[in-house]
Structures are given as structure tokens and as C-alpha cells.
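Dear colleague,

Thank you for sharing your sequence with our group. We've completed the structure prediction you requested, and as agreed, I am returning the results in plain text so they can be pasted directly into your records. Please verify that the sequence below matches your submission; if there's any discrepancy, let me know and we will rerun it promptly.
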Amino acid sequence: MTSPATSFAALRDDRVVAVVRAPWIPDAAALCAALAEGGITWIEFTYTTPDVTVCLADASAASAAGWRVGVGSVLTAEQAERGVAAGASFLVTPGCRPEVAAAAHAAGVPVVLGALTPTEVAHAVDLGAAAVKIFPAKAFGPGYFKDLRGPYPDVPLVASGGVNAGNAAAFLAHGALAVCAGTDVVPPDAVAAGEWAEITRRARAFTEACGR
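Please find the predicted C-alpha cells below.
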């Protein structure tokens, strides 16, 4: 059986996760298709979007087209279980959430736990995180990832918060496994309006800035 960590290893090649925070997503599968056309195939919906499980179900049903969908801002085991039932293939938390980690392990899906300090990174690793999301990344800058690489050379770190096409490559160069593309690629207004061509353009510009 493939372990959650192994199933998450493909992110080492793709290196970008689109994080969608929008008040309304008119067509989740079309949004995923637009991002995939621009080169981003890892898509994280979040519990800050109303009816996010509906979006997950729609997007995961069409995921044979080549994308992976997960759910973020997961705070409770109940949210984790609902997300997995709706089709989430990975879970993301804003901080270290032991109950979410336990639910993810029980379901056999990888979990990315949020952290900031070296102590929190260690806690996330102890909880079995497939990767550790450093948030807010922009507040500490790319150099912070180089610092964390000293004591944690083998921990997969994901940069989240304030990452854009102008600084994404620097985070990757300083040791981030991957970066999260937020409003720089998926502005809430563009998502709600179904501006798929614009989102494809933004995704392509972001991935090109990352050297892909």
C-alpha cells in the first residue's frame, strides 16, 4: 500500500499548490481545468468557502483529467472526515492540529500541518505530517527556509502566505519543497466570475516564474 507521505511525493516535481479562497465557486471542475492548463495541478479548496464539500465532490469527480484536490483551513476531525468523504486527497491545517492529523492517518490521506517556529515544525513532524506549511511565509522571507533547513534538512516545507510570482522562486531556491499560490493566481473576484482564461494566464505566469 502507498503511504500518505509517498503519495504526496509528486509535489516535489510540481512545486505549486493553488489555494482557492473565494466566496463563490460557480464551477469547481472548470476552475481546476483552468489551473491545470496553466500548469498547476495541485488545488486546495478551503473551509472558508461556503459549501466547500460540494466543490470538492465536483472537482474530484473530474480529477481523472490530471489534477489533485485537497481541502485546507481544516480545524477539526469532523471537517477532516467530511473533506475526505467529499473527495479530498490531502488535508491542510493553518496550525498544528493533532485531531486533524489523527483523522487524516485513519483515512489514509496525507496531511500538511501548519507551523512557524522550529518547535512547531518538530511538533508537526511528530504528528506525522507529510509536509509542514510555514505560514505566514512572507513575514519571515525566503531566508527563513534556509535557516530551518539547518536543523530540519529532510522535512518537506511548504511556503504559504504572501507568496507571489515575484518571490516564489526565491522560496524554492532557499529550501521550500513547494509554494502556495493564492490571490496572485486565483483572485476571489475572478473565481466568482468564472474568468477561467484569466486564471489560466495567471497560473502560467506563476509557474514560469518558478522556473517550470
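Summary note from our side: The chain has one domain: 4-209.

Kind regards,
the structure core
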